[in-house]
Structures are given as C-alpha cells and as structure tokens.
Amino acid sequence: MSVDFDKVVKTTAWSPGPGCHGGCGVELYLKDGKVVKVEGDPDHPWNHGRACSRLLACTQYIYHPDRILHPLKRVGARGEGKWEQITWEEAYDTIEQKWNRLKEESGPESVIFIQGTGRDIGGPITFLCYAYGSPNLTQLGLAGQSCYTPRLCSMVATMGDFTVADCSQFFEKRFDDPRYTLPKYIVIWAQNPMSGCPDAFQGHWVVDCMRRGSKLIVIDPRWTFFASRAEYYLQIRPGTDGALALCMLNLIIQNDWYDHDFVENWTYGFDRLAEEVRPYTVEKTAEITGIDPELIFAATRAYATSHPSAIHWGLPLDQVPEATAVDDAIVCLWSITGNLDVPGGNVIARNAWDVTQYPYTTQQLQEVYGEDILDRINGKRIGAARYEYLANMRSWGQPDMAVQQMIDGDPYRIRSAWIQTSNLLGGQAANMRKHYQALMNMEFNVIVDLFHNPTTEAVGDLILPAATFAEKESFRAWYQPLQLIRPAVEVGECRSDWEINFELAKRFNPSLRTRYPEFRDFVNERIASSGYTWETLSEAGGWKYPTQEEWPASVPYKRYERGDLRPDGKPGFRTPSGKVELYATLNEKYGIHPLPFYVEPPESEVRTPELFQKYPLVMVTGRRSPVYFHSEHRNIPWLRVCDPYPLVEVHPSVMKALGIDDGEWVWVENDRGRIRRKVKENPSMHPGYISVPHGWWMPEAKGSGPDFFNAWDINCNILVPTDTQSESGYGGGAFKTTLVRLRKIRPDEDLHPNDEAEWKDKR
Ligand SMILES: Nc1nc2c(c(=O)[nH]1)N[C@H]1C(S)=C(S)[C@@H](COP(=O)(O)OP(=O)(O)OC[C@H]3O[C@@H](n4cnc5c(=O)[nH]c(N)nc54)[C@H](O)[C@@H]3O)O[C@H]1N2
Ligand SMILES: Nc1nc2c(c(=O)[nH]1)N[C@H]1C(S)=C(S)[C@@H](COP(=O)(O)OP(=O)(O)OC[C@H]3O[C@@H](n4cnc5c(=O)[nH]c(N)nc54)[C@H](O)[C@@H]3O)O[C@H]1N2
Ligand SMILES: [Mo]
C-alpha cells in the first residue's frame, strides 16, 4: 500500500497493537504526526521486514473510534455502563488515597495486582506492586499459572537456564553466521508457532529452517500448517504428552540412542531416570496417547539419531496435570540426546547482556529488587505456604487460590484489584463465573486498558487509558537483541504502562523519586550491563546483540564447557550439582517428585469415565487465530473479516450423529454452563476432540450488563474449571482437556443461558 508520508520511525512492536510476545522491528510511516502505515523493518534481524496481519492493521487499532482516550470513573452502579471523564491527577489521587487507607486497615497484601500474558507488562506491574508493598502479583484466572511458567520453572530446576529451538536467532547475521548449523529435525510439540509466534519466537523461523532443509515432527491433536508439512505427525490425545515423553526417553535409553559423552560428563541421575521411564513401553504408551506404536518408535528414532535436532514446545504442555513433570521429561530428552546448547539444537536463551526488565526467576528478582525479596513477600503471598516450589521458583501468587481467597477472605481479605493488560472475563480466566464473583467482591477495581471489554464494563471502578507501542517509550530484553521501543505519536491522553506505574510507584515509595528522577534513568540503570544508555542505543539503531568478548554468557554455544553459565565461573550448569539434573534435587528440596512422571488429565475417559459418558467430547480450547491476540482485535475491521465468528470445529461424523449442519449455531455444554458456537466442519479433527477458540466477546454488542458484550453467551471459559493445579502449584489448567457435549439449539430455548439465577448454585 503506498501512502503519502513525511517521516518514518523505526521501533519495536511489543504490545499493545499486535499484542504479541514478538519483538518485530517495524517502520511507522507518519504524516502530520499520525501513523498512516505500518511495515516490517527490512533491516531488522528478528523479522527481516515481515509483518503479521495484526501489525499491518495497526492504523485501525491505534486510531480506533472506541479507544479510551481519558481516565474514566464509574458513576452508576457496576455494570450500568455509566462513565465520567476525569483528569490523570484525580485518578492518581483517588488510587493513592484508597490504597493508603487499605494499607492502614488491612495491610498492603489486601491489594492484588493482576496481569495478562507476558509482554511489556512484567516490568511495570512488578515495579508498582513492590513499591506499594503487596506480595500478591499474579496472572489471575490462568489456572495453575499454566502459561510458560511451568516450562520456565522446570528448566530452572533441571538445568538452570532456558532454551529454545535454535533458528539462528541469537546471531545478527542469522542463517549466514558460520557458527550456526541447521537442525535436522525440529519437533514442534504442542505448539502452533505459525499462528502465534509465542514466547519470543517467530513462527516463520521454522519455515526459514524448512526451506534450508530441516524436517518436522509435529505432536498435536489438531492438523495444523506444520502438521500438514511434517515427516512424522503424531495426533496425540490431549493432555497425554507426559506419557509420550517418558516413552521416548525409554526408547532412547533402551536402544542406546543417547549421547554417552554428554550423559556421563554433564548430567546427574541418569540411572534413576532410566529406571523411572522403563514402564513406558511403546505398547502401553500407544494405548494412553492414541498414537500408533510404530509411529512413536519411528519419530523417536528420527529425533534421537539425527544430530542436531531441536524441540520447540508450547502452551498445552503447561496445561496438563503435573505440567512441571512433563516439562522436566522434555528437558531430559534434549539433554540426553546431546542437543543442549549445540548449534541447531536447543540453544540456551540468555537475554542480551543478561539485561532483565521482567524478572522471571527468583534469582533475577533478587538482582532487581534485592536479596531479601523472598523474605519480604513470601510470608503473606498467596500459595507460598502451601507450595514450596512456587514459593522459591517465581514470585507470583497462585491464581486458583487467589480467586478463592478473593471470595472467602481466608486467611485474610483481599479488597482491591489492579488489573493491567488482562481481560479476565473476556478470555484469561478459567471458570469465568467464579472470577466475576471474586471481582464483584472487591471494593475498588482499577483497570488499565485501551478499550472497554467485558471486564471493564462488569467490574471496573476506575479505568486508565493505556498507550499502544507506537506511543510509548520502553525497552525490550526478552532474549535477544536488546531493543528500544521509541514513541512516535500521541493519542488522546493515553499513557504507557511504565509512565502510569512509575508515577504511582513514586507516590507509594518516595525514595524512587531521587533514585529515578525520570523513566530514562530507570532504563539506563536496567541496561547498564550493555554499556549503552537509552540515547546511545537509540543512536546505534535501537537494537544490539552482544559480542562474545562483551558478554560471553549471552553468546552460544556450549557455554557449560566455557564456564560462562555459572556465577562462580566454573564449567557446568547453574544447578546445585553443576550438571543437568535429570533427577532434580531442587524438586526434591521443594517437596515434589524429582523425576519426570505422568498423570491423566483431571477430566478424561480414563480418569472420570462416568463424566465422560455424559460429556463425551474433549474440548481443546484456545488454538490461536493469527488475526487475534486472545480477546483482542475483534473490533478491528480488517482482522474481523478474516475470522468473523466464535467457532467450534467438529469432525463430520460427530455432526452426522447429532444432526448438525456446517454453519449451524449449537450449544457446547457441561455441568458448569453452556455457550453458543457456530459449527465449522473439519474432517482433519479427531472425532473425539473439538476445537474451541477462546477470547470471544462481541465488541458490537451492548457493553453494559447483563450483556457485557455477550461474553456470557460465548466465552468458552464458562465451561473450564479452576482448581486443577498440580503438586508444584504450577500447571494443570484444564484449558485443553475439559469434557463437554454438543447439542442442537431447540427453537424454544433462551439464547442467553448463563444468567445468574439459572447457574447460581453451580459455581
Ligand atoms: N480457554 C482458554 N483460555 C485461555 C487460554 C487458552 O488457551 N484457552 N490461554 C490463556 C493464556 S496462555 C493466557 S497468557 C491468557 C491471556 O489473557 P490476557 O492477557 O488477558 O489476554 P488479552 O486479551 O491479550 O489481553 C487483555 C487485555 O489487555 C489489553 N492490553 C493489551 N496490551 C496491553 C498493554 O500493553 N497495556 C495495557 N494496559 N493493556 C493492554 C487488551 O486491550 C485486552 O483487553 O489467556 C488464557 N486464557
Ligand atoms: N495470534 C496469536 N498469537 C498468540 C496468542 C494469541 O492469542 N493469538 N497467544 C499468545 C500466548 S499468551 C501464548 S501462551 C501462545 C500459545 O501458543 P502455543 O504455545 O502455540 O499454544 P496453543 O495455540 O494453545 O496450542 C498449540 C497447539 O497445540 C495443540 N494442542 C492442544 N492440546 C494439546 C495437547 O494436549 N498436546 C499437544 N501435543 N498439543 C496440543 C493445539 O491444537 C495447537 O495446534 O501464543 C501466543 N501467541
Ligand atoms: Mo499465554
């Protein structure tokens, strides 16, 4: 599209706008101070000029007529939809006064800080939460904290670092860097990177590898873009990945396909692992997972004997019971096959210069907030007393326990919620009804967002308008490179999350005023290890990778041999034994089983056969739509037209048995409620599973109650339970394994079935 423009600003697109986890370099074309076009930056090594549909549609997002442009306070009752514009000063003063009163009456722990998925939010929300003094920061509603946290914690416990599939992303010259080797196989395990670019990884990098010769093994119950191009496609029963991983380990050990040198020199607990996985024969595992035994054998052999190969894994592995145990098993796979931190394997993913904005681990948190952070927060933090693993691995509250405590006030009352980057009732929260009740129980809810949505309308008391990436100054240090987000335009009175939280944090902790007179001072402190300041990094183009001389820990490969991983500078890994702990002593210390294991999903044919008789379909929710980010973008015309309806994808044999036609609206239901969905016939689905995209509400419907943009009628999280967490406190959300049935809508039926009266006793 050619447009008339007078200036181009290069920056990083990191939420809001496209919304995602990615770090794409973009060019904002400006005319008279407005963005008129958005393109991928051809000079940026992350995306080489590519841009997704959500990025290209950003002009419709930034200047959308429904954007909230000023702080708003509620003037009618909750849900009445009556808002009044106020000044920022009034908004800040109100929050300061209310929270100071709550602190006096009930302690700072009575305010809960709630965020959505990881994007440019971890930094600002932690900053505010700890400045105010509350220990309770959580991704409320994400049952079991079941997104990336289990994978991250598992990697920290077993190997002391994170890894990702090596697609050359740690080198500026990418595939041309002579140090790089292509993976022979990429195992795409429970992920759909083409639609989602999740976890700081761009889906198209896999295509880049395929075009150069990599082959694929795809493990997914649903036929995806990559499944259709795979050498081996394993259509697994949802939630049974743990069994498959154990079986693969068993096969690799029994057939002597493992890397003896790596196992002997760099791992701990191999013999006990071998013993533990022995029961997982191919036959038994085929029965559990529904995958052909020969296919399991062939795919395992291909992965283990083709060196190097990489595994790239996704969200559903965190949304199974005992997720950390499943994730541990997969760490064991890439470790014993000698694919860890080698070219074309699972490369260790350190941030550039180890800069963090967003403290993932306890160790990083201590670097940012001081050695005594755990002592300060763990006493009152929700879940810390019950789950030792959670208390020591990542300083977040336990979401299933948090929602319960918001309702019953036990062991202490939660009285106010700060919600920033999360549409709880429109997509994030399992058991939406319970979360509605919990938030209604709060005295004062502040929501920072760009648009009204079911959450703002149903439970918001004060709304603060957030800025898009095009309007904000920030930085990104999620793996590499280190990048700046540079402001190009202004819209209304919107402010960035950093700006908002910075101002409030200083009100609660005045010492921050002298430490960081300006936000830039904070950025300069955070990125100091790079040797750059905001200004010099901006002059240098806005992004940089460290060289080996500058910061060896950030540069691949075999850092464990070089002694670059451990704080003491010795060779080895950042674990208690210095080895990759196949037998995880940290798990043992925190009271969970030290070796990988498998358990059935909370609701399933095997575990709850009676429930299965009544609800014979496995509802796999949340397959990502490339044109939406969770609950966002339904209001963007260019995007909505591509994926206009809340669908349920069903195998034709199921439709035939129920007398349902393609395009017909049906009920999807279980004991927790029912939702309406439009049927999409999909012959590639397994007949036992249906796919139900999440995050659906209708921006075009009435926002005030009881409608709340029809979220009660179509949000699949009405059906998904909470309290399915595992023994570590992490993982287990049943988002991919909830049992349901489909039913035709009778002409006499109420199309808005989830009103309070009908379901009150079913919470
Ligand atoms: N059924 C089902 N439910 C799921 C999932 C699933 O697979 N199935 N996935 C779960 C997962 S993995 C996650 S992480 C959660 C995500 O859940 P959320 O993070 O809540 O999802 P979003 O809808 O992307 O974001 C919520 C709100 O944040 C606003 N927003 C976006 N960016 C910013 C920003 O930078 N600043 C501010 N202030 N606001 C912003 C948007 O306008 C939107 O209203 O959902 C979970 N819910
Ligand atoms: N466009 C877009 N991009 C996104 C998001 C978005 O909402 N929209 N959300 C972001 C967020 S917060 C996250 S966490 C990521 C999630 O992205 P991913 O990690 O890719 O997770 P999902 O899309 O939930 O599922 C990935 C694949 O796993 C399959 N699957 C489902 N259940 C199982 C199972 O039990 N076992 C196996 N082996 N496979 C299973 C699904 O069919 C799907 O194809 O995406 C991020 N990127
Ligand atoms: Mo997520």
Rough shape? globular
**SSE-based structural type:** alpha/beta
Extract low-pLDDT stretches. 756-763
Largest sheet geometry: 7 strands, mixed
Strand content: 15-25%
Rounded to the nearest angstrom, the radius of gyration is 25 Å
* Euclidean distance between termini CA atoms: 51 Å
Q: What percent of the residues sit in helical stretches (DSSP H or I)?
A: 25-40%
Bound molecules: ligand MGD, molybdenum atom
What descriptive keywords fit this protein?
globular; six-stranded mixed β-sheet; disordered C terminus; seven-stranded mixed β-sheet; 763 residues; binds ligand MGD; alpha/beta; binds molybdenum atom
Question: Layout of SSEs?
Answer:
Layout: E1 7-13, E2 24-31, E3 34-40, H1 53-56, H2 58-62, E4 72-74, E5 83-85, H3 88-106, E6 111-115, H4 122-132, E7 137-138, H5 149-159, E8 163-165, E9 185-189, H6 193-196, H7 204-212, E10 215-219, E11 232-234, H8 241-254, H9 260-266, E12 267-268, H10 270-277, H11 282-289, H12 293-305, E13 309-313, H13 323-336, E14 346-348, H14 362-369, H15 373-378, H16 388-393, H17 399-408, E15 416-420, H18 432-440, E16 444-449, H19 454-459, E17 462-465, E18 474-476, E19 482-485, H20 497-508, H21 511-515, H22 519-526, H23 534-539, E20 543-544, H24 559-562, E21 580-581, H25 585-589, H26 609-614, E22 617-621, H27 637-640, E23 647-650, H28 652-658, E24 665-670, E25 673-681, E26 689-692, H29 711-714, E27 738-744, H30 756-759
The structure holds ligand MGD (2 copies) and molybdenum atom.
